[in-house]
Amino acid sequence: MPDEQGTTSTTAAERALAEQLGSSLRGEVIGRGHPGYDEARAVWNGLIDRRPALIARCSGTADVVEAVRAARTHRPLVSIRGGGHQVAGSAVCDEGLVIDLSRTKGVHVDPAARTARAQAGVTWGELDRETQVHGLVAPGGEISVTGIAGLTLGGGLGLVMRAYGLSCDSLRSVQIVTADGVVRTASRDQESDLFWAARGGGRGIGVVTSFEFGLHPLGPDVAAVQLLHPYERAEAVLRAWRDATDSTPDTVTPELALWSVPADPALPRDLHGANVVITVAVYAGPPGAGATAALTPQRQFGPPLVDMSGTVPYTTVQSAHDMLFPDGDRYFMKSLFMDELSDDAIRVLVEWDARRPTPESLIVVRTLGGAVARVGADESAFAHRSARYNVSFDAGWQDPALDEAAIGWARSAWDALKPFASGGMYINFAGLGEDAADGRGAIFGSHEERLERIRAAYDPEGVFAPAARRP
Fold this sequence. Notes:
Uridine Diphospho-n-acetylenolpyruvylglucosamine Reductase, domain 2, 471 residues, Vanillyl-alcohol Oxidase, Chain A, domain 3, five-stranded antiparallel beta sheet, Uridine Diphospho-n-acetylenolpyruvylglucosamine Reductase, domain 3, 17 helices, eight-stranded antiparallel beta sheet
């Protein structure tokens, strides 16, 4: 903490922790007086401004073991950083220890076995780059700079989930350092409780150092639909889109957004800043006649303003919106699951979209079902297999003076749609700490009790207990 002279002071406990880490880690130990401290504590969401006492930037699994042992001895508040892209910023904590895996970037693909092993600091774009050499994918999210760790541990909604399931559904195994400092491999056949918890249970089970994914054939080129529709037809487009999704094959995962047209030179200048309805769908298979037939219903919502559909590299689809969510902007996202998208719910969505506080803010409607629903309800910690839709209210802005208005809009819109929801909340879009604390039952549902038992069994002293309570 700064003292009266403005310098940074440390406690005896912090010094002891720093000494143990400094003597045992090959990677870097970054304290508050380090010249790279501010850069090391920064995460994607500029709304998050936390000041940990120490950051243990691990070079590999051995460093993670030493960091966990030090945490068990000195008992600081602990957070774990993978890609650092999570909305709630749970990768960093105030006054505690950050176990930072962001520099662990190894990826090994076995094309014959159709598997990939990736370390916890890898992003989806980095994983896609390696797997697409072989025309294979692990189902990721919607932004390529998202880390594989946080997305997968929270479940992992994405653009091909109806075909291949959630990100966590493609997991074969994880390597994890538990609170006792032991390196374990968790899979269906060993440490099966840990493996169950790693598929959608979020945080608090240990430090996952690597993920083994089963891969699926897709790419390098895919057929995709992306249409911008006039905003004055928003309700009509939403209803038509909803009706079309009822008969959509599992090879297509439709998505819809209420948004504003960015200042993209590839888009007509006269549309920049205009409110629109965006519909997106990717065919999870080879381009051709089958793709055309499967995607045709996604093109029949009336004449679009802009049609950006076509055959493009899968990596282009996965990174298309990266620039619209830049590092350092301020973000707040909160979501809910729905079994039905009624006309009344659609009217609520359009009503609250009209109140968006900034052009960067948006409302996204995702479709589940297909492979997501074919996994048994109790086969993983992810608790929302039967849901038909996920709706998220995503506030984005730059000016700190807009914090209250932007966050307030997302929370109020969420409250307005809640009567139409099935009662679930996606942990990766669960607001900030206070939002997740109020909705833990909604996040994990009937799985919460089993999760707590598993955490207690592997972490009886509660080394990771605070991390488990974060979104």
